[in-house]
Amino acid sequence: MPMLDLGPAATAVARVVAGVRDDQLSAPTPCEGTSVAGVLGHLAGLAYAFRMAAEKTPVDGTASTDPAHLPADWRTYVPAQLDALAAAWRDPAAHEGATAAGGVEMPAEVAAVVALDEVVVHGWDLAVATGQPYAVDDASAEACRAFADSFGDDRPPGLYGPRVPVPDGAPALDRLLGATGRHPGWRPPA
């Protein structure tokens, strides 16, 4: 498996984070029951957990979607965590052996894909919820889609929603979104 570069996705999501307005923190996202603040907090936690996984120093617990866990300095904290995540996975040793994140042990090269998937998909969740443009490279979207597709229709509870049909010729990001149970045309309620 080729070594993934999480840098472009982390940079794209950091741009989205910079564009989130305070009045949007309570807005809904495509993650049912999770607000913009909840997704931001989740991103901060997962970026830290998967950075520690890259460094082979796993931490206990999962990345919460409770808006109360959003750090007060989220505008700088979340992008810093995303940068640190990308930097940690640039080390070839991060992709070797086994590691754990969120209490789940896995091969390190799989953990890199899971981290990328979390960043790419939740970046889209934030972008669409806050009305911002969002783009990821096709290679990242395809790597994440292959991961999502690896579960078939027998998905672990809470991992993804039911598949959403998306045409084969749709953009790579749209196909990934459908594979994760998201409607590529989702927009916040008026």
TrEMBL record:
InterPro entries the record matches: CHP03086, DinB/YfiT-like, Maleyloyr_isom, MDMPI_metal-binding
Could you state a single Gene Ontology molecular function term?
Answer: metal ion binding
Q: Where is the Mycothiol-dependent maleylpyruvate isomerase metal-binding domain?
A: 8-127
**Pfam families cross-referenced by the UniProt entry:** MDMPI_N
Q: Origin, by domain of life?
A: Bacteria
NCBIfam families named in the record: maleylpyruvate isomerase family mycothiol-dependent enzyme, TIGR03086 family metal-binding protein
Annotated protein name in UniProt:
TIGR03086 family protein
Q: Which organism is it from?
A: Geodermatophilus telluris
